[in-house]
Amino acid sequence: MYSQLLNGLMAYLSGSSIHNAFAARIPDDNGRKHDSVPPGSPIPLSIDSLAQALGDYSQAAQNHVVPLLLTVGQSDPRKLLEILGDPRVHASSWSEQLAKKVVEIFQHIASPENVDKLHLYGKTVVDAYNKAVEAAKAKLHDFYDYAREHPAEVGTVLAILLALGMLAVLAPYLLETLGWAATGPVKGSYAAWFQSTYGGYVPAGSLMAYLQHISMASI
Fold it and tell me: Which spans are transmembrane here (predicted)?
């Protein structure tokens, strides 16, 4: 299985003209293979096959399947979260390194230069972004206004915050993996790193209030 998935990844990365070669190698959830996929459209994936591959999180999965999954996530983040939320994957194969890569994908999606492309990811992603923005305005209003006025200085921080907010809507379990606990950031985690790096902009209490606001609004 790993070699098949890796071959598809390599074909995909070699150029957009090979988009269909990648898609044809991965059956969808009905077992059908696709001979053609319009450029820019979501790539069909079998959740069963990837859940099985990621379930043991072996070295082979790290080397072969995880890069494939993250590549697909850049074009279809909803499919990425659907796969990672599968109990077979979530129960046994989550690692903080993989979680951080997912944050990077959503940081890219939420960056100012890409906001006008949000609609390409569908209503679910757009709604999550809007909820993150609303929460930032409500709970981080001073920083939000400052970041909008000084994107060169703190635009990256805002994009990360919006990415975390989107994940609080779409995949709240991911925040636990990253080290956000009810009592605050877990020592040595990504959450602790974020707080030590950007705490001058966003105090721990404000960040927790922001994430909790989103979680409550999403119930």
Answer: 154-175, 190-211
